[in-house]
Amino acid sequence: MTGSPLDGIIVVACEQAVAAPFATRQLAELGARVIKVERPGSGDFARDYDTAVHGLSSHFVWLNRSKESVALDLKAEADTVLRLLARADVFVQNFAPGAAERLGLGADALRARFPRLVTCSISGYGPDGPYRDAKAYDLLVQAETGVVAVTGTPDEPAKAGIPVADIAAGMYAFSGILAALYERERTGRGRHVEISMFDALVEWMGFPLQYTAGSGSAPQRAGISHAAIAPYGAFAAGDGGEVVLGIQNEREWAAFCAQVLQRPELATDQRFATGAARLANRPALHAAIDAVFAQLTAAEVVARLDAARIANARRREVEDVLDHPQLVARERWTEVDSPAGPVRSLRPPLEPAHLGPIPALGEHTNAVRAWLDEPTSR
What we know:
Elements: E1 10-14, H1 19-29, E2 33-38, H2 58-63, E3 67-71, H3 78-87, E4 90-93, H4 99-102, H5 107-113, E5 118-123, H6 138-145, H7 147-150, H8 164-187, E6 192-196, H9 197-204, H10 206-215, E7 232-236, E8 242-246, H11 250-260, H12 275-280, H13 282-293, H14 298-307, E9 312-314, H15 318-322, H16 325-329, E10 333-336, E11 343-346, H17 365-372
Parallel strand pairs: 1-2, 1-4, 2-3, 4-5, 5-6
Antiparallel strand pairs: 7-8, 8-9, 10-11
Helix pairs in contact: 1-8, 6-9, 8-9
């Protein structure tokens, strides 16, 4: 794609599952050529997670558009892998700790051979420490970092509904690689980017950890509400519709009481007069709101909230989001090709983006082998 920010950048990725493929997909969409090295015969095991997209895995479809797939045995064809890396700008891998070194693909060994190469390792818990060799599926990392402890209802914890540990690690890897490429423009040398799912998700736990360290107690699980702000969450109207709202400051609280609830006296009620008081008396606060909303339709509640300039939203099911009016109006849906034919695909947040097809396993092996035999100026 002419004019893309990463035109001419070649990325070799020995990757599977979610975190590393998510990082390299962002690079591909900025114009990098991403060569995905897969195990012959089976490939990335995320190909088999489900068959929801015309027989293809929803995870694989999400994570691997715009890439080339090369089937290589890393042990038997180590020479071919090194020939690929000789032409590469970036090498990304999410092997188990120590595996890259055993294959001769450790960061230090590679940079001694290819000084300009940017290397990126994504692991569960990092290259050292007592958890170095622990299995690190997304759910397990959510549990270890406390995400499960702060998610769910007061009665029952829950995991986040999307793979937040993988996504966090993938995004830090993506930004780290971009920074390393920028640094290379100044120094002429690559660097190693080390990312762990644990470190990435602990960073995302910043507010609950700071809250706990400062107060001596953890924020309480509050379902769709907020652990430290009230009112903040979903409220039912009299017609059964649900409206989500959030009050961020005292000005909004006064407007909410006067214009939405039409009970201005609640703004100075000692139970609700401050953010801390509203949080401490959340059941009574919700009861007061519910009593008013029960007399209104969801549309009437939204009209009052809009008039008072109170932030609000509709709680949508996943099916509703597919046709969200904002996605439709901004033409955020497109199609990309795949081994099963065209599939619906969201445009990425970073635009303009290169959107290429989802590769079949080993689809580009012969073409890449032929390319390796061509002369290079690198």
